[in-house]
Specification:
Elements: H1 19-30, H2 36-45, H3 49-55, E1 63-74, H4 78-83, H5 96-119, H6 125-149, E2 183-192, E3 202-207, H7 218-222, E4 223-228, H8 231-244, H9 250-261, H10 276-289, H11 292-300, H12 304-308, H13 312-325, H14 329-339, H15 355-409, H16 425-449, H17 455-487, H18 499-517, H19 520-526, H20 529-549, H21 553-561
Antiparallel strand pairs: 1-2, 1-3, 3-4
Helix pairs in contact: 1-2, 5-6, 8-10, 9-10, 10-13, 13-14, 15-16, 15-17, 15-18, 15-19, 16-17, 17-20, 18-20
Amino acid sequence: MDNKHGQEDDEEIQNDETSQQWLMRQLRKHLEHVPDQVLREFVHQQDITPLRNFMTGTRQRRCLFIQIEEIVTTAVDHKFFDQNPLTEVEKDEKPIEEQLSQLEVDQHIEQELTDMQTRKKSVLSTNKRKMKRFNSKKSKKIQEKETQLKPLKVPEKPVPAPNPTIEAPPVPVQSDGPEFLKAHTSYVLKWYDEENVPESKFVFMATRDEILSGTKSEFDKMFVTGYCKDLFKYGKAIEIGKLLLKNITFEHKMNLVMQLETNQTKMEKWQDPEGRFENFILESLVNAFQSSLQRMNTESMLDPSELDVESIETLLKSRVKLFALAPSKEGLTQLKFELSLLEMKYISNEMFEESVVGRIDRSSSLLSMLFMLYRDNSREWIQKTLFHCIELTARTIATNIHQRVWNLVHEDNPQCDRKISNVSDETHVNIIYNIQPLLVKLLNLGFTVLNEGSDEYICLQKIEQCIKIVNYIQEELEVFKDIYVDLKNPVRDLTFDRTALDKVQQIVTALWHSFEESYFESSLESGNYDSMKNVCLTMVQLISEMKEIMPKVDSFCQNKFN
């Protein structure tokens, strides 16, 4: 087999590379076990119209396959040797069963002869002597056959102890037979241009959604290739995907193929941005079926912070992997319930939208149902997921409070890179007001699910204490809002004395820094009671100072212009 590809090295890409040269390079990269002559005949002698149509196509996503058929044959037909008398070894000895039957026949004949001797006493003596000689010969034959049936005892030879100073002789390699009798594998390559994944081993070529940079080959920039040889892994992934999704499209199948069979730094995908649930299912199946090396390479591309923090995606991917290893009807029902928790992933991106209230409410109800149905076999997983949901809910409340403060004081803190939310202050207030009861509901469920005395249980107790401080902060924030809106009244700009206004701006800046330095979101999420308490006390003190320095605008105008 000619596997030495010296003429076109994968790393040496020609600037004026043609489509045939590119195809040859890709086939050599993926099909190292196929003779180079077979690849050259396929590329240079077969019709490459499917390749040209694929490269010049107008569809944004298109794919082309090359099927690889393996034909195993032998150099000479074995039936010829079975029928050839020259190759057969003649056996003089009969089987043991036939020998035993012959022995019985001889004994029967001997018995008849003795009976005849007793009945016929008038037989001549000469005949008697002949009969005796006949009987003696028969008895000798019987004894010889009996000795042949007995196995010979071979004396055991003592095995000498191995001498470490003497090198052991090389073990002879046992040959499987003559070279011309060994099996021979031939390969046939065929084009497959259909919108369906082949059922045999194949090489695929597909368009990239994004042009690849860092390579001088124009074809590598636009197309991705791979070799699918583990059909069992791919087929099982498709079967499980059909159980979890209503419909497996061709793009879904190609998404699985490209992620399972390409070993590249940048993972290629064919995904619909709107099909977020389908994309997650496919990625979870890939995570369940890919090798440990591929999984390690994939994790190395993630942000280290994402690996340290438990997320709902990592929690659910472990459940999909567990189901893929041992599918069952009961496990499928439980997994579908658990996959409904995927919408917790979008809580972080929708904290300023009223839809986040519905997501948290549904997640809370679903976790309660999972605990009632599957507490025996999934208690640990439910505990982790519930604790993660409580953390997200607490962070949502704290983020909306923090954003309310920033929306009021952003003009006085130009150096801060925090963005202004596009929603009104009333929306933030409604979100906080509606989520607080859900947080209390989740905490009560957590006290039932979590083990009393564990670190998570103690953390929930701290969060419960912080909820009371959140209510005080909300009240003080309303007072601060009224004072600060009054300070922004244009009437105050009519005076040339801005000393009081400057002092108030310093107080506002100090108030904002108190939120920033306390890491307000993390404080509530982790139940840091002291940090939350300090923020509340700081707000009370600074607001009282603002009232003393700057009176209401009505009294201000009365003192200045009367």
